[in-house]
Design goal:
The complex is a heterotrimer. Chain A is of the alpha/beta class. Chain A contains 8 helices and 10 strands. Chain A has one domain: 3-Layer(aba) Sandwich (Rossmann fold), CATH 3.40.50.300. Helix content of chain A is about 35%, strand content about 25%. Chain A has a 6-stranded mixed β-sheet, sandwiched between helices. Chain A has a 4-stranded antiparallel β-sheet with strand order 2-1-4-5, covered by helices on one side. Chain A is globular. Chain A starts with a strand and ends with a helix. Chain B is mostly beta strands. Chain B folds into 2 domains: about 200 residues, Single-stranded right-handed beta-helix, Pectin lyase-like (Pectate Lyase C-like, 3 Solenoid), CATH 2.160.20; about 150 residues, no CATH class. In chain B, about 10% of the residues lie in helices and about 35% in strands. Chain B has a 13-stranded parallel β-sheet, covered by helices on one side. A 13-stranded parallel β-sheet of chain B has the order 3-6-9-12-15-18-21-24-27-30-33-36-38, with no helix packed on it. In chain B, helix 2 links the parallel strand 1 and strand 2. About 0% of the residues of chain B have low confidence. Chain C is mainly α. Chain C has 12 helices and no strands. The model of chain C has no long low-confidence stretch (mean pLDDT about 85). Classes of the chains: A alpha/beta, B mainly beta, C mainly alpha. Chains in contact: A-C, B-C. The interface between B and C is medium-sized, with 30 and 36 residues.
């Protein structure tokens, strides 16, 4: 679905991506890596928020270079949810629908799922971080597109909402979507992912299932397997 | 007693003479015997009246050497650019109601439409002069009237144009109700004293609306000076009075409402100056008082160029001028008290109508502009406001003691009938 | 783009700052008219305010709004919207809401004091038009600074510095140069120098309609000919347009290449 070839990106003198090659298929793919390894940059490259210096990204065999309409088919959950402060939740949802030109989509199941009804007429500036993240999730899931990119979706969520989120991801996976997740919560990753991509020093260090990862690192526990990669490389 | 009787007899005979023996001569283009003004003047006796009937008379050099009254009834004298038209060389001559056109232009001689020389008690009234070089030129004459004439020139520059009304060595002349436009100087007085200039309009003249040189004790009242090179220029004169005049729209690099150079003991009061580049420009003048004038929206209200002593600028209104004052040299006993300045920013806590802090009418920027005229482009810019403010707070470049100690809080209501 | 413009505008006109800005002009207008009783003079004072404050406020609001809405911008960037639409839309949102505060804030007091009956309406329109241009120019400059500086403090500092430079320092340097080289013919240089600074140019355009014309005679023919004539006024407005166009074009160019 998403094919990334030889992707390079440098910010000033800081080389973040040094030739990523990746094929992302249907199902949940977790992108892991230490802080600053370029996970978010990779996500943003897929969304054309960051332009790669070199390399290509193809989505459904279409090169996305200097395109923007392909984003119609992508839902994105940004890492930090920050909205215009002076509008209400309802207005925000309406606005995003309007901007995506999909006014007919129904958000009520998601609103109910995250129990947001009491907040609908509140201004965003008055909401807590967790509630904002829930709204962020509603906006990401409500358009039901084939590709879903979730950047740290668990930030600020209470346990109940976390469970709802997992269910939601499973449900979307059943529909045959391509879901890209970055997260630092290993248990969460282990629970939801089919594939793991480990990025280290700007390169794909590992790409495979959790099982394959455990085997290659000779660890029975997922968290240890990840820790193992890190200590091997940084020790 | 006998002397008195003799005097009365003389008066009686003169009276009799002017009435019973005076003839009326009628000039008409269709009259075969007297069809020219020149002919009429030749055959006329002293104190006769010549009536010139309607029509165009192509004549010039009409020399008048006896007391005559010449009145036009809609007649036009066309001088065909040959030279002068009326030349008066006798006393008690009246020239009235004529339209005079095409006065000759010369670089050697000052040709005039009407010239009066060595004459007394003349009356030049209600004539219209067009296509002229000089309009009305009075020499060494006195006790005459120049009233209600209209002079329309076409001057473009100073070199080849003449003046509207010119006086040279004349005394006690009344110049009243005249309109002069587009000549060099609207009205020019040289060595002429005790003249009254009242209710005239000078407009669009190339040089000055009214110009005095070496003339004393003249009064200028109720006149309008609009869009001239300078409204009124007074040079090397003294004991003058100017009041209730209007000076407006005199614009240009050397344009002034009033230009004073070496003028002493003069009073300028109750005039209105508006929209002039410089309302009053003063140089080398002493004991001149400026009171109850209104200075409205001029570039500079007063430009004091130095060597001015004991002048008084009091009870005037300074309203919205770009600069109220430009001043060179020391204070020299000049007084700037008790005026109203529209940009005074002080307060009046004791409610006596006088600002509690003195007003400093000079802005540093006015000096800058004076030195570098191009800098005018920065007028009202923030930077200029800042330097003006700092100069106001601590004067470095401008005279420290040049202040109005009694700035008025309210606009002064002059009683203009004073 | 129109959608983004609509939402930015909608967002901004509901923000507290827009009201403060609006109220500021409203009060200023009424106070000026109340103190002066003379619409003509109030316009001169107003000119001083507009020349200095409109650029300052546009700069501050422009940069503030850019940084404030940065995360939201990122949200928009992930949506199927053309990039240039997002930035130009937001930019137009801020500059139009600022212009509206100016127009309404000053319009109400002047209308209620009989602007329509006075002959000064043309001056007022020129004033508002120039205020509008200055808003467009300075919020665009601020937006450019925002786009080029991730660091808020640095961006804010640069924006204020830019304002300070164009409003004060530029004139200071320029005036010093004029005085230093006062012996040379300077009219053309002055003309060019004025035209290169939008604040100076706006000031001259307004002054021409108000009180400088009496003084222009003093400086000689070049200014009078240039600014006094129709061609000069047209050229001045063209240059203001250029001053508006270039920063907006730069927003477009920069936004197109920038990584977020």
């Amino acid at each position: 679905m998403i094919k990334i070839t030889n992707l390079h990106k440098k910010f000033a003198s800081n080389e973040i991506l040094k030739g990523i090659n990746l094929n992302i298929d249907k199902g949940v793919t977790a992108i892991l890596g230490p802080n600053g390894s370029g996970k978010t940059t990779l996500n943003k490259c897929i969304l054309s928020m960051v332009y790669p210096d070199k390399g290509t990204i193809e989505i459904n065999s279409q090169n996305i270079h200097s395109q923007w309409k392909y984003r119609k088919g992508i839902d994105y959950l940004p890492q930090i949810a920050n909205f215009p402060n002076n509008i209400t939740v309802n207005e925000l949802i309406k606005m995003i629908k309007d901007l995506r030109q999909e006014s007919l989509k129904d958000e009520t199941p998601l609103i109910n799922l995250f129990k947001l009804t009491p907040y609908l007429d509140k201004k965003l500036t008055n909401l807590s971080g967790g509630t904002k993240q829930k709204i962020n999730l509603v906006l990401a899931f409500m358009f039901d597109n084939d590709i879903l990119i979730l950047d740290e979706p668990t930030t600020g969520l209470d346990p109940a909402a976390l469970i709802s989120l997992k269910e939601l991801i499973f449900k979307e996976k059943q529909k045959g979507k391509t879901i890209l997740v970055t997260s630092h919560i290993m248990s969460f990753v282990e629970e939801i992912s089919d594939q793991i991509v480990f990025i280290l020093e700007g390169k794909t260090y590992f790409h495979g299932s959790i099982q394959e990862l455990k085997e290659s690192t000779n660890q029975s526990d997922f968290q240890h397997a990840i820790a193992n990669i890190l200590t091997d490389n940084y020790a | 007693m006998r002397k008195l009787f003799a005097f009365y007899s003389i008066v009686f005979f003169i009276f009799l003479g002017s009435n019973s023996w005076a003839k009326r001569i009628i000039v008409s283009a269709s009259n075969s015997s007297i069809s020219s003004v020149k002919h009429a003047i030749e055959i006329a006796q002293s104190n006769d009246t010549i009536l010139v009937k309607s029509g165009v008379y192509q004549e010039s050099d009409l020399i008048i050497t006896k007391p005559l009254t010449i009145i036009s009834e809609n007649a036009t004298i066309d001088g065909q650019n040959k030279g002068e038209i009326f030349i008066v060389k006798a006393d008690s001559v009246t020239i009235k109601n004529f339209t005079i056109i095409n006065v000759g232009t010369s670089y050697i001689k000052d040709f005039a439409a009407i010239r009066v020389r060595d004459s007394k008690a003349f009356n030049i009234e209600n004539n219209t002069i067009k296509e002229l070089f000089f309009g009305i030129y009075l020499e060494k004459s006195k006790n005459g009237r120049v009233v209600n004439n209209k002079i329309y020139g076409k001057a473009k520059n100073e070199f080849n144009s003449g003046n509207g009304i010119q006086l040279w060595y004349c005394n006690q002349i009344l110049i009243q109700g005249n309109y002069v436009e587009k000549v060099r100087d609207g009205i020019y007085l040289e060595f002429s004293n005790y003249c009254t200039i009242d209710n005239n309009t000078s407009k669009d003249n190339v040089r000055y609306g009214l110009h005095f040189m070496f003339s004393n004790n003249d009064t200028v009242t109720n006149s309008r000076y609009i869009n001239n090179g300078a409204g009124v220029a007074i040079m090397f004169s003294k004991f003058m009075q100017m009041s209730h005049n209007i000076f407006s729209d005199n614009w240009g690099s050397a344009a002034y409402g009033v230009l004073l150079k070496e003028v002493n003991d003069t009073q300028i009061y109750a005039n209105t100056f508006s929209n002039n580049t410089t309302a009053i420009n003063i140089e080398g003048s002493n004991r001149v008082t400026y009171t109850h004038n209104d200075f409205i929206s001029n570039g500079w209200a007063i430009n004091s160029r130095g060597a001015n002593y004991h002048n008084k600028v009091n009870y005037n209104n300074f309203l919205n001028n770009s600069f109220d004052l430009l001043y060179h040299g020391q204070l020299n006993q000049n007084s700037f008290d008790s005026n109203y300045w529209s940009n005074y920013t002080g307060y009046d806590l004791d409610k006596d109508g006088i600002g509690d802090i003195s007003h400093r009418p000079i802005k540093l920027f006015s000096y800058v502009v004076n030195n570098t005229p191009e800098a005018i482009i920065f007028l009202r810019s923030l930077f200029v406001d800042i330097i003006d403010f700092s100069e106001k707070v601590s004067p470095v470049f401008t005279p420290d003691n040049l202040v109005d100690h009694k700035p008025q809080i309210k606009k002064i209501n002059h009683d203009k009938n004073n | 783009m129109l959608k983004i413009l609509k939402y930015s505008f909608y967002d901004l006109i509901r923000s507290r700052w827009s009201y403060i800005y609006f109220l500021f002009y409203l009060i200023l207008g009424f106070v000026l008219l109340f103190l002066n009783h003379d619409i003509g003079k109030a316009i001169i004072t107003l000119m001083n305010v507009i020349i200095v404050l409109v650029p300052l406020i546009s700069t501050i609001f422009g940069i503030m709004y850019y940084y404030d809405s940065k995360e939201f911008t990122e949200l928009l960037l992930a949506l199927p919207i053309k990039r240039s639409s997002i930035f130009l839309g937001q930019y137009l949102g801020i500059s139009l809401s600022l212009s509206m505060s100016l127009l309404i804030g000053l319009g109400i007091p002047f209308l209620s004091y009989g602007l329509l009956e006075s002959g000064i309406i043309f001056d007022f329109i020129i004033l508002i038009l120039i205020g509008f241009f200055l808003t467009l120019i300075f919020s665009a400059l601020a937006y450019n600074i925002g786009l080029r500086n991730e660091n808020k403090i640095k961006g804010f500092g640069l924006a204020i510095l830019l304002w300070l430079f164009l409003a004060v320092i530029y004139d200071g340097i320029f005036l010093s140069v004029l005085m230093l080289f006062g012996d040379y013919p300077l009219e053309n240089i002055t003309l060019v120098g004025t035209v290169l600074n939008p604040i100076d140019l706006s000031r001259i355009l307004i002054l021409l309609k108000l009180d400088i014309s009496a003084l222009l005679g003093y400086t000689g023919a070049v200014f009078k000919k240039f600014f006094g004539g129709t061609a000069g006024s047209l050229i001045s407005f063209l240059i203001l347009l250029l001053w508006t166009y270039i920063p907006i074009y730069l927003i477009y160019k920069t936004a197109k290449k920038k990584d977020f």
